[in-house]
Recover the amino acids of this structure.
């Protein structure tokens, strides 16, 4: 056992730091640091810097434009981005769709979409949940009927992040009714500018409207937009959720958020801050730090196992639960540290707290995660 | 970054695992804990033969040259096997003290200890000190070439078997001052040393030891005059990390036993492990176990890195976490077993008792949290800004 970074990894970290110093504008860093909304223009600017450097898609194989980083290097990159207050959030297309196209897409789909993903030519959203299909995702009812001209899609999707900004959506649709409901699901790419697509933003607790409802009424989709084979979409998607899960267990972001909280308390800017001497607050903070130390070592072990070529083990399954709960606790502490100022409408800390509630719900609620762990790891 | 065992570490793990599997059945343990001194002398000799008593001593001193990670490997296996021999008090705590102290007398004691010919215990806690090793009222007064030791120590593990007791005594300074603490190796049979031995809640042994005018030669000083605290702090951190690893071994057994029970116990016509409320509780046990394992590793890594303030923060963090995690796992194991969970005959009862005792060893959750907070404050002051990581 050796828990130190190798000299190669330390050199890599310096390289990342140099890049970040040049690529991030102080303005965007400040927005990220204060949990203010990041505009799509800011995000695209950041992604173009990443793409110029060849670092847009660390999770892809090198042959398709990936970085060839080891899992440890990827973790270092994530931690450094968090520490430098790079804009949070990922390109859903790169992180979630890319790996599916690489594994299951046609040669034509790969050569068309992958370079466009790297350049952020398209903005993708993920169309999975439906009003009647949340945790029980496999019960989804949006239907794609195959005819001579491709697919005719009808249905409704909901809780879709940035559907209003997206021009493309990767989507799960029902193409047949099988006794096992998972087997009738297919993976379809939908052009959001098609006739029959209607997007309605949904305002959430933090006052933002980042998530949307999407109505699909007689939408015509070319047959070439089916990824892989009909009826196998569920397999592709659950594999994709695994990718999403790793992204969610963002221990690096928690570390940065905690450092921010500590600095708020050490040097209160403006508002009176009497929280550090409050023993109850100080103890809560210490407990979160301790839990984060544990979570970080859990992540290191998962990353180290992945570097050794092992399949993700119990560590990564638990990280979504642990990571999301930590982020939520830190968000609440940060709001608390603002005292009465937290009650001002649109207080970033309070919006951050409201926003953090989604972390234990999306991409499989923590209750669903616990059921999955009970079944797959404990064998119950 | 590498969580795999090195070949040397794998050898240690294999030999400890084999020992536990071959020689550590419930009956053998019961025979040990039922008699005096509460463990098996034969096992202790075997530990010496296998080189485990020198796990942490330098190779030049006849030891294995291991560190906190090696301690963790041994203690996790000892935890899973509920090994009662006083490895933490004698080898990890007292052994570290003697090795770090230097000097001919300490080296001679260490050599005997490694050979299994002398058991050394540390007496630091006092009736009014709580868990805090700084709070020392026991005094050592200079009298010619000797010290005269007076005071009371409590919770000295296996003092009943110890040939030598290292005592923290004040040669200078106020009661809560880190300066002025001197460590003295006292012959446990010296005139003026009295013990009240008792059995602990986990069937182990501990003693209250009083010192009344005990004459100790100056050569018995471990380390230097008045400067014993850094040695004391390091050895207690190592002990603390050691019991954290032991707790991980125990929690692992409790989680596995409980999950097995959930799969086999049938109520309402089906295994109770199919009920979601119980599944989620079992997953929460697994989460506490894996976070516990992670933070015990973090503590071991910090000790082996060698920076005292980072070491102190990490071991305090680990102990604070493990105290709570252990309690959660213990109580959940009992609860998920139902009525059978409160019986002594169920094998997990011994694990429950040991884990409960560990909650207090080297400081409970509250004390450790406070220790963590002051370590972080000191780090922050030293670095001129908030520090975390």
């Amino acid at each position: 056992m050796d828990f130190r970074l190798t000299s190669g990894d330390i050199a890599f970290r310096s390289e990342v730091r140099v890049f970040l110093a040049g690529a991030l504008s102080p303005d965007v860093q400040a927005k990220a640091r204060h949990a203010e909304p990041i505009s799509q223009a800011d995000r695209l600017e950041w992604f173009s810097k990443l793409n110029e450097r060849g670092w847009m898609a660390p999770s892809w194989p090198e042959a398709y434009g990936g970085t060839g980083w080891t899992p440890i290097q990827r973790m270092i990159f994530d931690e450094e981005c968090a520490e430098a207050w790079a804009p949070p959030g990922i390109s859903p297309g790169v992180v979630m769709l890319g790996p599916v196209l690489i594994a299951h897409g046609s040669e034509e789909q790969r050569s068309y979409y992958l370079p466009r993903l790297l350049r952020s030519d398209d903005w993708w959203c993920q169309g999975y949940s439906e009003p009647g299909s949340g945790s029980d995702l496999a019960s989804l009812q949006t239907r794609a009927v195959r005819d001579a001209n491709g697919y005719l899609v009808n249905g409704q999707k909901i809780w879709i992040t940035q559907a209003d900004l997206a021009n493309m959506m990767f989507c799960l649709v029902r193409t047949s009714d099988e006794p096992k409901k998972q087997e009738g699901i297919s993976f379809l790419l939908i052009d959001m500018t098609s006739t029959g697509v209607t997007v309605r933003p949904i305002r959430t607790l933090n006052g933002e409207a980042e998530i949307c409802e999407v109505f699909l009424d007689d939408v015509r989709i070319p047959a070439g937009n089916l990824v892989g084979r009909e009826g196998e979409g569920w397999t592709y998607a659950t594999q994709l959720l695994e990718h999403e899960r790793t992204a969610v267990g963002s221990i690096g972001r928690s570390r940065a958020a905690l450092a921010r909280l500590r600095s708020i308390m050490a040097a209160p800017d403006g508002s009176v801050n009497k929280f550090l001497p409050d023993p109850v607050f100080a103890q809560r903070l210490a407990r979160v730090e301790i839990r984060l130390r544990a979570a970080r070592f859990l992540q290191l072990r998962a990353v180290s196992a992945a570097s050794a070529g092992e399949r993700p083990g119990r560590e990564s399954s638990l990280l979504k639960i642990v990571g999301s709960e930590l982020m939520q606790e830190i968000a609440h502490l940060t709001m608390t540290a603002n005292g009465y100022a937290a009650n001002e409408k649109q207080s970033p800390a309070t919006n951050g707290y409201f926003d953090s509630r989604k972390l234990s719900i999306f991409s499989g609620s923590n209750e669903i995660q616990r059921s999955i762990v009970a079944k797959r790891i404990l064998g119950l | 970054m590498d969580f795999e065992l090195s070949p040397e570490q794998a050898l240690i793990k294999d030999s400890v695992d084999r020992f536990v599997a071959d020689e550590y059945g419930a009956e053998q343990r019961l025979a040990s804990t039922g008699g005096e001194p509460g463990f098996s002398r034969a096992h202790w000799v075997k530990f010496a033969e296998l080189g485990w008593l020198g796990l942490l001593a330098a190779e030049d001193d006849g030891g294995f040259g291991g560190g906190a990670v090696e301690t963790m490997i041994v203690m996790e296996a000892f935890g899973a096997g509920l090994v009662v021999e006083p490895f933490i008090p004698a080898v990890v705590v007292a052994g570290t003290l003697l090795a770090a102290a230097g000097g001919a007398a300490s080296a001679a004691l260490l050599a005997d200890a490694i050979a299994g010919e002398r058991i050394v215990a540390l007496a630091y806690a006092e009736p009014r000190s709580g868990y805090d090793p700084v709070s020392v009222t026991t005094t050592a007064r200079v009298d010619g070439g000797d010290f005269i030791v007076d005071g009371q120590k409590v919770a000295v593990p296996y003092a009943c078997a110890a040939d030598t007791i290292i005592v923290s005594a004040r040669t200078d300074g106020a009661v809560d001052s880190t300066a002025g603490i001197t460590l003295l190796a006292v012959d446990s049979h010296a005139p003026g040393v009295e013990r009240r031995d008792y059995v602990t809640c986990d069937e182990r042994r501990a003693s209250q030891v009083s010192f009344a005018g005990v004459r100790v030669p100056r050569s018995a000083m471990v380390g230097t005059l008045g400067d014993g605290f850094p040695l004391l702090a390091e050895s207690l951190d190592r002990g603390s990390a050691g019991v954290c690893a032991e707790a991980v071994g125990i929690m692992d057994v409790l989680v596995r036993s409980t999950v097995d029970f959930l799969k086999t116990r049938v109520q309402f016509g089906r295994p109770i492990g199919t009920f979601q409320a119980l599944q989620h509780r079992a997953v929460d046990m697994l989460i506490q176990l894996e976070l516990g394992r992670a933070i015990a590793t973090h503590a071991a890594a910090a000790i082996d890195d060698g920076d005292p303030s980072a070491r102190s923060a990490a071991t305090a963090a680990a102990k604070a976490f493990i105290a709570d995690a252990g309690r959660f796992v213990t109580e959940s194991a009992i609860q998920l077993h139902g009525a059978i969970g409160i019986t002594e005959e169920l094998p997990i009862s011994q694990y429950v008792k040991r884990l409960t005792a560990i909650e207090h060893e080297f400081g409970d959750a509250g004390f450790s949290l406070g220790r963590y907070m002051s370590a972080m404050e000191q780090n922050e002051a030293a670095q001129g800004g908030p520090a975390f990581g």
Q: What stands out?
A: Chain B has a mean pLDDT of 95.
